[in-house]
Amino acid sequence: MEKEKKVLILCALYNAENYIRGQLDSVVNQTYPNWNVLLSNDNANEATMKIVREFLDKDSRFCLIDNNTGRRGSHGNYRNAVIHSDGEKYDYFAYMDDDDVWKPDKLEVCVTKAEEIKREKGENTPICFTSNMEIIDSEGNLKDPDFASTYQYQIQNPMDAFFTHRVFGCNLFFDRIVYLAVKKLMQDPEFSTMSSFDNFTYQVAAGLDADLSFINKPLMSYRRHTSNSTKGAVYKINAGYFVRMLKQVDQVIRNNAYIARDSIDAIDRILTLDLKPEKRKELLEIREGLQKGGITAMKMWHKYHVNCGDQIRTAENWMSLCLGMERKYLNG
């Protein structure tokens, strides 16, 4: 492995006084040492900042900036980290939440895999990896050793990212090609306030025809607690979920319309990049299906074999889009 490859870790920092030390320690203990961390501070409390300053004082690889984008929350804060980083001098990038714990070999596994692909496919091959995770609770107790199987978030068809939000930013690892494209698009002052930084990054990578390899080995412990920005997400589909879905059909349709609007906005931005002709054609076809619904969506859905992660989610998305149920919310 080429140790000279540099990795920039982008972290959105908020009130994480109970967890931030464990996360930063897990970075310091990485078997791959050639990294820097850029912490974007979204007005974190003093208890959090006291811990962060300890790491800033003893390790020059840590750097802190303030979130000055005017947009609060994790999406705006990660955007701040992307557009204000000096990423042009790095080879690889990773997003990091402030309350998780990385396995010691996370970066080494990702860099090694990336370098293998670059050797096989060429240095100009864009890269954007996701990996498996284990789930821990607020106390660090293991709750699920194989989250990819539970949530079925491994995306088989890259274009599926435009139909469902199944990407977790905390385990994304990508190269400079993807980073520069994402930074260029995020610098636009009109960058959508509803765009999720993680799904958007993955969508940009898909548009660039990146290698989107999935590393099935759990490389981090993803902490689930009541302060998570995704605390309301439902990961495991069962009979109870199906019953709730039937009782809340209108909300399901609204949620799918939100994803469609988000994806249409993302596609419009990605189309401004220098894309391969076949990828441009695919994105235009998907955009048309999302916008028009009905028969157009059915044809597009069949052509791209859309899979939203499991049969129930795929069925609900198909019905709301292909039957035209979400069109009344699409522009709302």
Structural summary, described in words:
- The chain is an alpha/beta fold and 332 residues long.
- It has two domains: 7-223, Spore Coat Polysaccharide Biosynthesis Protein SpsA, Chain A (Alpha-Beta Complex); 239-330, no CATH class.
- The protein has helices spanning 20-28, 46-58, 73-83, 106-121, 147-151, 176-186, 197-207, 239-247, 249-270, 277-292, 294-304, 311-322, 327-330; strands at residues 7-13, 35-41, 62-66, 92-96, 101-102, 128-136, 142-144, 173-175, 214-223.
- Strands 1, 2, 3, 4, 5, 6, 7, 8 and 9 form a nine-stranded mixed β-sheet that branches.
- Helix 6 (176-186) packs across helix 7 and helix 9 (249-270) crosses helix 12.
- The longest helix is centred in the C-terminal third of the chain and has 22 residues, at 249-270.
Largest sheet: 9 strands, mixed
The oligomeric status of these chains comes to single chain
Q: Report the top-level CATH class of the largest domain.
A: Alpha Beta
CATH topology label of the largest domain? Spore Coat Polysaccharide Biosynthesis Protein SpsA, Chain A
Shape: globular
